């Protein structure tokens, strides 16, 4: 077996917040793809970890879920061990059969029949938000469009009042706060306070659903199921947090990336205006181009081999989706945002295999609708300053995007 000295050593700590805040992540990942598709970083704020950076190797890791585990008690699904130092047993941080049973509870909420109902709400909300935007006046696209669109739909899935979106957003931000800056006792303490408040609020909703006949909303599905109806408090916290983060963070960051993509490649917006049927493919392309989930982590259950290297039992293996989605072996001219890209659907923005995002259809529908409306309204969304980017190696996102809307020529 290969010794530690023989392992290819990752020359840059690609978990560093600065790479994503300063938007300088492309070069180090391109170098790794070319020189060491699988490499080892012996030291980082999150401890040692392997980096898997090519499309083919990430797919292999995802499909070998019998060896590369998602289990929360072995380290969870992010580069950080546990979640802010706390066990977080949600259903994507499980292996079969627990993962299979709990995913089966959630997945009917995103079935084709349910998506037809949700599509009506998506279109209505998109139009309402775009109708209310000022023309020729600077505003924050994140605050006025991306957040209310995605959190509005999430409130609908929970059958909760939209007026509570700010609380839900705050809890989502705390639940997804993977950053070296957050590895402090003070942060962990406040994290537990926020998660406790979230649980208290959602427990009231869960108890309300328990007294009623089963319905289509996510909370009702959970409470009336064998697999999720009798969870311990930390399980409830973890699964609610997962649904909140998965239901808004990734989509809202792709919605904001649209502004950047159309500004950088205005010809692609013209293509959409000329051919509105491209909107669905453009939704796949913006997920690929932005890669709103930067990485997922697995833990080796036994010594195994990957790409000619020996992975030891217990090793942390980080799959960098953001790199796989720039893999030129799969996506020629990968840096370019191309609404007609023939294989845009091959992106790994939603993962791959048994852990592929259960709510992918809803995210795709929201993005397709927004793209189609922007094209149809013949508007230009013009950035007024550099966006503020999220300090995280886990979610690739924005905290602010100042823009103005102009009528297209």
Structure write-up:
With 409 residues, the protein is α+β, with helices and mostly antiparallel strands. The chain has one domain: Orthogonal Bundle (Cytochrome p450), CATH 1.10.630.10. Helices cover 46% and strands 11% of the residues. It has 14 helices and twelve strands. The strands form four sheets. It has a five-stranded mixed β-sheet. Strands 4-12-9 form a three-stranded antiparallel β-sheet. A hairpin with an 8-residue loop joins strand 10 and strand 11. It is globular. The model has no long low-confidence stretch (mean pLDDT 94).
Class derived from helix and strand content: alpha+beta
Mean pLDDT: 94
CATH topology: the name is Cytochrome p450
What's the N-to-C terminus distance? 64 Å
Q: Can you tell me the CATH architecture?
A: Orthogonal Bundle
Could you tell me the strand content as a percent range? 5-15%
What are the salient characteristics of this protein?
409 residues, Cytochrome p450, five-stranded mixed beta sheet, 14 helices, 11% strand
How is this structure best summarized?
With 409 residues, this protein is α+β, with helices and mostly antiparallel strands.
Fold topology:
Layout: H1 17-21, H2 26-35, E1 38-41, E2 49-52, H3 55-63, E3 68-69, H4 98-106, H5 112-131, E4 139-140, H6 141-158, H7 165-175, H8 185-210, H9 218-223, H10 233-264, H11 266-274, H12 279-290, E5 295-300, E6 304-306, E7 309-311, E8 316-320, H13 321-324, H14 360-376, E9 379-383, E10 388-389, E11 398-400, E12 402-407
Parallel strand pairs: 2-8
Antiparallel strand pairs: 1-2, 3-5, 4-12, 5-8, 6-7, 9-12, 10-11
